[in-house]
Prior knowledge:
There is one protein chain. By secondary structure, the chain is of the alpha+beta class. Helices cover 36% and strands 23% of the residues. It has 24 helices and 28 strands. Strands 11-12-17-18-19-20-21-22-23 form a nine-stranded mixed β-sheet, with helices on both faces. Strands 15, 16, 24, 25, 26, 27 and 28 form a seven-stranded antiparallel β-sheet that branches. A six-stranded mixed β-sheet has the order 6-7-8-3-9-10, sandwiched between helices. Residues 1-6, 257-299 and 598-606 have low confidence and may be disordered.
Amino acid sequence: MAERTARTDAIATSGFNLWYGKFQALHDVTLGVKRGIVTALIGPSGCGKSTLLRSINRITERLGYVRTTGRIEVLGHDIHAPGVEVAQARKVIGMVFQRPNPLPISIRENVLFGYRLHAARPSKAEAEAIVEAALRKVLLWDRVKDRLRAKATGLSLEEQQKLCIARLLPVKPAVLLMDEPCSALDPEATAAVEELIWELRGEYTILIVTHNMAQARRASDECVFMLLGRVVERSKTEEMFVAPRKPETADYIEGRFRVGAMATRLPRMLGLLVALGAGATSHAQRAGLPAPGEAPRVPREAPPVPREAPRVHGELRTAGDVRVLLLWGDDRERGYAEGYLLVAELREVFEDFVLETVIKAPWLWNGVVRRVLATKVSLPPWVQARCEGVIAGMRARDPALLWVASLGRDLDADDLAASTVVPDLIGLACSSMVFLPPRSGAAPILARNLDYFASPGLLRHAMLIVHAPRPGRRGFVAVGWPGLAGQLTAVAEDGLVATLHDVPMRVRPRGPTTPRVVALEDLVAAGPRGGEDRGLELAAHLRGHAFGMGGNLMLAWRASASAPAGAAVLELDAAPADGGVTLRRADADASWFACTNHFRARATPVRCSRYAAFVTAVPAGPATSTAADAARVIAAAQVGMTLHQVVVDLAADTLTVRLRRKERADVWSESGEVSIGAWITRAAAAGAAARAAGPFPTGR
């Protein structure tokens, strides 16, 4: 290709515009894509992502009504320069589409197809070497080496997509363009293709279009956000998801859509909705959902607890405006009480948050997520016992509420166990900070925001959950939801508080993984009680787990007889030298430190808006900060996705909680000051008194 430039970018567009007839789809797109990395194009449907991708591969020019201006260069060459043929450009630029498109010939011939078009006919030995090398590169060789003569269309969708990538490799393209390559795949296959993309990174420049924000975070080095045919923002993926520069980017990443921005799309959208209306009704009816025009179906409430209700290992109380669930007994007994007392709330949280907000396609839950749980997730026995107890309690209270129409069956214990992986699927975006004690023997103050996707049920039913102590496990107080095992924010009776955060990074465990929420509860309830260096001991305890998602645990603890009070961040990653868990501490003379999504030896707070909010809000002067100061500082880092705010004063043994009750609205429930030890003691005392009165039902 002619007209080589000095650019170091693999792909560079300059003032590129594209019209479909009179409609302009791309506006002055000027963009550079760096060599050897994965760059994700994100943005709402119709923003021009796929059009830009197809323009780079010269697909759009086949349409007679398409007109373009501006310039696109690949490896420093103008792809539209005179004398540059389409076939010549596509030898350098490979393309992978939304749905796999293997040719209806053998697997072997699929791999060789492009090579035979662009190169001399290989000898038999050369052909075999080419096929094996390409299939090994896409991690497919071991699966298909004994059936290379079989038709490619007989492969699974995941295998077909990998084969389509393998078909590109023998011609040695420099650039791979991928237009939503995982949109037709289930989550397990998606993970396999993402793994392949990461393996190809470095050797190839990869530009991928995706609507999956979690995928963009996991599988790319840089992100480009597009809106209405324009490039709005480009930055490193970590920076875009943690601290987007443009409000439009933040709106999209956090799930908000501006009406004005979508106004130009409404006529076409309405026409499509009218065309689909008749089919939508029958589909909704099959799924057990209201058809278009019907009033939404209100979930049926649980029947009132009967006057002579069976006694259970738990009770409901309140602290301020916040409900408090007290639990005691063994794991199954605690689960039974939870299911019996909160049957309607539990069912609503599972259905409208787990299935409809996170998974979005309930058939994936039945066919994939539960299977992944059985083969790739390691859960301790207490999780399964608690989940079985929850289902037994729900069945005892109202068996009709176990029915989930979108699944076509009753809710069961495996569904609840599988929900522990949900935070590992979509991630968290959180911030915590600790005021460190100004003198030896004093206790720190920890404050945190939990920023997360939400649903009405998740907001409505957040509560405090108090677990009484029992042999081998400490009592603790957590902020959580009914029926969801594991914790995101918890404080133990001995003064250990832990909060979970995400980092936009990949972790590649070799065996079964532990959900991070399960590891956090296990750490708080059964972790080491304190030695000379509690931070090191807690890190060593976590190294007994393998994690499928990177993250951080922000920890703070009171002094013990053998060790001073302190705080630390435990980074969950794949660093072999640290056994997958890296310990970070504050500087020796620091009066506070923070964990805002990541604490990767952060030197300056410039690129993180939450951290910058801390810097601005922390009181100046000597370290004499109070719980009220901590509440004010954490509120300064609050965002529209903040679901709860917690302040734990370990010296006073108290916590205060604010729970958002309406999405992105300033509507909160507040607990007031809660005595941690008093509530744990109350749960233990209630359990002792109840046990003295006779046996309990457990649904066994």
